[in-house]
Amino acid sequence: LSHLQYLFIENNDIQALSKATFRGLKSLTHLSLANNNLQTLPRDLFKPLDILSDLDLRGNTLACDCKIKWLVEWMESTNTTVPAVFCSSPGQFEGQRIRDLALGDFQCITTDFVVHQVLPFQSVSAEPYTYASDLYVALAQPGASSCAVLKWDYVERKLRDFDRIPAHSAVHCKPIVAQSQLYVVVAQLFGGSYIYRWDTAVDKFIKIQDIDSQKTRKPNDIEAFQIEGEWYFVIADSSKAGSTSLYRLNQNGFYSHQALHAWHRDTDVEYVENDGKPRLIISSSSQAPVIYQWNRAQKQFAPQGEVGEMLDVQMVKHFRVKREQFLCLSRYIGDSKVVRWEGQRFVELQTLPSRGSMVMQPFAVGQRRYMALGSDFSFTHVYLWEEEKQKFVKFQELAVQAPRAFRYVPAADVQLLLAPSFKANTLVYRHVVVDLSL
């Protein structure tokens, strides 16, 4: 009906319209949809109506949510006369004129984690690093007796096989790029732990030294950091006879610098700087997490205290919001905790149910701060930090079996979350921004 000028379809109990309802009505000047049961309108519904002069939407129960945001924009720019139409919901907009709403009133930007790539193997740790301007990820694969090194393909936007370091019972493969050299610390449950270096002459990893097997018997976690320009790494050891140990880099390699925490079955270690003071926080299955503070004169860490009275802490990770410092403490049996640093000690802020949790990893993507709380018995819960409430709120569930780590990896314009699994394939999620008004 290309010559139709007037269309009145009011009082017809119309509940929905398709986007193409008015396609071809190029001569339409007057349209009435009044007194129907419309709660929303498809985006750009009136775009084909080039010369529409009068539109009546009164008497409908329009929900002023993100699906109607386009209508507010259209009303601001059109010359069409539209008698006042009011919002019926949600509560904060009920009774308001749609024309009076500001675009900023609509909170339509949300995010999602979607599966981007499935890596067909089990793994227990993932460590990204950049070397010679390329992005890599090192994953510990005890089932495959190796540390797998994958390289990011910027064209295909995928992780691809690059190299493998033999490791019969690898629990952690920690890359360290220091002084233009690439090292990988390979921690194994059996057969000792080693340090490899990338040899640019032959383009392969070469084993350069052993790690003292008397101190490191059952390693769990490795953290690397710099203090006053010097490189260190620390290995958390979970055996009764071993000790969590600190190593320092010199010209020829990494050498034992300090035995930190013996006989305590340590599960994880985290490097934190509070008030400009370097600290290590070591979690243990036999006692509450212990805080060590760096002594600049002695160039060693000294015990400073404990984090509350929490046993069975499997993992300790920190995050910072503005000037405030927080810890995430995952527990396998009890509830997991979020604590905040208040001058001289950490104070409990939030308790999260987490039976079977081995990993609790905070991470930030742009202005959004998330936390992934894994479980051996249920879904992984992704939480979103709410600054006003000073706590995490549930955001999304991820189907990851027995996760052992979550690692955020920014890869150019793609934001990735790696989820190593002890029992299934390793999953790579992509962080996507969704505009609900489109």
UniProtKB/TrEMBL annotation:
GO terms for cellular component: extracellular region; synaptic vesicle. GO terms for biological process: regulation of exocytosis. Residues 60-109 form the LRRCT domain. Transmembrane segments: none annotated. Keywords: Glycoprotein, Leucine-rich repeat, Repeat, Secreted, Signal. It comes from the Eukaryota. Its main location: secreted. InterPro entries: Cys-rich_flank_reg_C (IPR000483), EAR (IPR009039), EPTP (IPR005492), Leu-rich_rpt (IPR001611), Leu-rich_rpt_typical-subtyp (IPR003591), LGI_related (IPR051295), LRR_dom_sf (IPR032675), Quino_amine_DH_bsu (IPR011044). It is found in: Secreted. This is Leucine rich repeat LGI family member 3. It comes from Anser cygnoides.
